[in-house]
Design a protein that fits this description.
- The chain has a single domain, classed as Beta Barrel (Maltoporin, Chain A).
- The protein contains two helices and 31 strands.
- The strands form three sheets. The protein has a 22-stranded antiparallel β-barrel.
- The longest helix is centred in the N-terminal third of the chain and has 16 residues.
- The chain is globular and about 65 Å long.
Length: 597
């Protein structure tokens, strides 16, 4: 009864504080709800959220991925902190139904979406992280069934040196060095980061090393940016993919990513050629005590070009071309290659002082599947200077991963006859913005067709992925930012999701593992001696009891160049399982120093 009262009080407090009663507010911080109308790099979107890693909170320092804790993304972790192995979920989606972007370019892992969090850049490289839900994400290509998460990199534009180090419970340690400078028209930044932990129980130890290099040349008509990242991980994976079976697994991954893009503009015409290459190595042992491994090597190549022109009453009109290829060489999945060719259009225009329209249309031609059309339309009505009504509809798809098609082990069996998933997204939202305050409420409905999940009817047989006829997903999202004064502000969001699934007598491995209630609140205190944050996270999945986590962090400024910080996660030492059958870590504390020149 006591826990139930706490949960009710937590959600009621978010709603109560959302009413605009502040008359002494300052400018909102970057985590507030934003409405954006720009190029394909961030398409016409509404009710999207963004956060900056360096301002995301004292207790989110270790990984740029941890910044997502302040946004409406269900980051499903497998017992490891620091973004070592996490799955993304939006609006009740499976871990495969979220599109991951880097500077607007698709980087989803073709082997399995379990590797989508292998993003080889440090928090010093990330300018902001944007969540593009539902109807705003269809432009960017396959996998945006429920939405997209875009990691936008920071161009090196200034001289900056950062040195950060921390240590904590369970023999954990962390260090980061970032050096950047700009000489005339050339800027560069080099960052290196390492994290280790002994783990909170057997087979949860990990190591992670990340290095990145960014360059930017200022050109007469624009700029040329290049980003290269490398990441190496080694981690205990006890029952990660076989919950409840007791396998002491271990996994090693390496990721290489190179993204190069030109941005040129003359006479109102924008031209943006781009090339992205991602290579990923995965070595997995179902039992770390046996010398038996699965080795996987994947490559992605995505060259493309985008044109945009201001077309008078038609607004900003763009057209883009892409060609992509995905390859895998695997000891288990075999050797496969598939490619696709794409053409897409997008437009955003102000029809009047009160009405904005955005739409996109995309054609993808896959070598292994039929041609597919996707697209979106979004309409915004400005009711007054502070309030706007948004409507959106989109069609999206997801092609099966190589693992879903070809994998085989003692517990799972792939299915080479799978067809792509398809979905329609509908949403309607109301947003309110004034100085120091913003809030938004969105109702969404998603119709999924041929949804893919790993299922079985007999517990004694292997899990196998199958296409199902249809799922219906509906819910609402609420987002709030409020600045009370120059010392105190609040960021909060709440998502309710319900999913109507035609079970057809099957047991599901992933389909029902989603957050029905997901609520997050971060209290920000800008104190004279530093910054303090207190975060509350509540999550409840269908058929399971929810859990409430308390996190806190404090930054203390020793001088203008030096901060000392202490961070505590899961302060109440709550026992919970993000993935059923895989216990999560209890209370942890870390402390460290940050120098910046």
């Amino acid at each position: 009864m006591f826990k139930l009262k706490i949960k009710r009080f937590f959600i009621f407090s978010i709603l109560f504080l959302s009413f605009p009663r502040c008359s002494f507010c300052r400018e909102p911080d970057p985590q507030e709800l934003e409405t954006l109308v720009i190029t394909k790099e961030k398409s016409f979107l509404f009710s999207g959220s963004s956060a900056r890693p360096e301002q995301a909170g004292a207790f989110h320092y270790q990984s740029a991925l941890e910044t997502l804790a302040g946004l409406p993304v269900d980051l499903e972790s497998r017992a490891l902190a620091g973004g070592i192995q996490s799955d993304f979920s939006l609006r009740g989606s499976t871990f495969s139904q979220v599109l991951i972007l880097l500077n607007g370019q698709r980087i989803n892992d073709p082997q399995t979406a379990h590797h989508n969090s292998d993003i080889p850049f440090t928090k010093e490289d990330i300018k902001r992280i944007e969540v593009i839900p539902g109807a705003g994400s269809a432009l960017f290509g396959p996998d945006a069934i429920a939405g997209a998460v875009d990691f936008v990199l920071q161009p090196p534009k200034e001289r900056k040196i950062v040195l950060e180090s921390a240590a904590g419970t369970r023999h954990s340690g962390y260090g980061l060095l970032s050096v950047g400078d700009k000489v005339k028209d050339f800027g560069f930044r080099f960052s290196v980061e390492e994290a280790k932990s002994g783990g909170f129980r057997y087979d949860t130890d990990f190591e992670k090393f990340t290095a990145s290099l960014a360059t930017r040349w200022e050109l007469p008509l624009g700029s040329w940016e290049n980003d290269f990242g490398y990441q190496r991980k080694a981690f205990g994976a006890y029952d990660f993919y076989t919950p409840g079976l007791g396998y002491p697994s271990f996994e090693w991954t390496r990721t290489y990513l190179f993204n190069s893009g030109l941005s040129l503009e003359k006479d109102g015409i924008l031209v943006k050629p781009n090339f992205l290459w991602r290579r990923h190595f995965d070595k997995f042992a179902l039992n770390r005590n046996l010398a038996s491994y699965n080795d996987h090597h994947t490559d992605m190549f995505v060259p493309g070009i985008y044109f945009q022109k201001e077309a008078g009453v038609l607004g900003k009109t763009g057209i883009g071309l892409e060609w992509g290829q995905e390859r895998i060489i695997s000891s288990n999945l075999g050797k496969h290659t598939r490619d696709y060719r794409s053409i897409y259009l997008d437009d955003s225009a102000a029809l009047s002082d009160r009405v904005d329209l955005g739409f996109s249309l995309r054609l993808d031609d896959f070598s292994d599947f039929r041609q597919a059309y996707t697209g979106s339309a979004n309409l915004k009505f400005k009711l007054n200077a502070a309030t706007a009504l948004n409507l959106g509809i989109s069609r999206s798809l997801r092609i099966p991963s190589f693992t879903e098609l070809y994998y085989n082990d003692p517990t799972t069996l792939g299915n080479p006859d799978l067809a792509p998933e398809k979905a329609w997204n509908y949403q309607a939202g109301l947003e309110y913005k004034q100085e120091g305050y913003s809030s938004g409420l969105v109702f969404f409905f998603r119709q999924e067709n041929k949804m893919i999940d790993w299922v079985k009817k007999d517990p004694a047989v292997k899990w196998q992925p199958r296409n199902f006829t249809a799922d219906n997903v509906f819910g609402l999202e609420y987002s709030l930012h409020k600045t009370f004064n120059r010392l105190f502000s609040l960021d909060a969001n709440y998502t309710y999701t319900d999913k109507v699934v035609d079970r057809q007598g099957y047991l599901y491995k992933y389909g029902l593992n989603y957050a029905r209630h997901l609520a997050r609140t971060v209290f920000n205190f800008d104190l004279p001696f530093g910054r303090q944050e207190i975060g509350l996270d509540y999550k409840q999945q269908p058929g399971r009891r929810g859990w409430l986590l308390l996190n806190a962090g404090l930054n203390y400024a020793l001088n203008k160049n030096t901060d000392i910080f202490i961070n505590a996660a899961n302060i109440f030492n709550v026992e919970y399982q993000d993935i059923p059958g895989i216990p999560q870590s209890g209370r942890s504390v870390q402390a460290g120093l940050r120098w910046e020149w």
